[in-house]
Amino acid sequence: MNLIITCPRHLEPETEEELMDILEEFGDSDVKVSITNMSGILIADTHLDPIEVVKKIKEMLIDEPWSVRYCKRIIPIQKVIESKIDEIEKSVAGLSNQILDDETYRISIEKRNSDLSSKEIITKIAGKIKNKVSLEFPDKILLIEILGNKTGISILKKSDILSTEKTKRSISE
Q1: Which of 2, 16, 144, 169 sits in a 20 to 30 Å window from 76, CA-based?
Q2: How far apart are CA 67 and CA 147, in angstroms?
Q3: pTM of the predicted model as reported, rounded to 2 decimal places
Q4: Is there a contact between 156 and 143 (Cβ–Cβ < 8 Å)?
């Protein structure tokens, strides 16, 4: 899984088809999209760079806002691991070099079907990263997406996460 997609509940099949069409148009005819057992959540595995996919879909939305109807958020994932605090800690340590010395960061955790403690995760991770924290305007977001027994981790700029509604709204302003 290198993309997490959210959509309105009960429109998962339409979202799956829409995403497969978009990614095929971008050149990945072998994309694997799965509807999870969590309402409104799909995961995809594409051969394309997930951050590039988000950029291209944003460009597509600016040209043709009607072309994306079902995908609400598209989140690129850089690493997938088991949902265990020590695994998350290890993976973050391996990715944290993407936060440059002068950059600020924020940890964002989204949990679904999990009892892991967000506070415990943040405490363990924050001690390992020497950069300054900025909750409002971070240079990078350390995103931890917990989906049951699988966790996706990414270090992204805010612009690397696509919210189709925000993008469409920005066009009309």
Answers
A1: 169
A2: 28
A3: 0.93
A4: yes
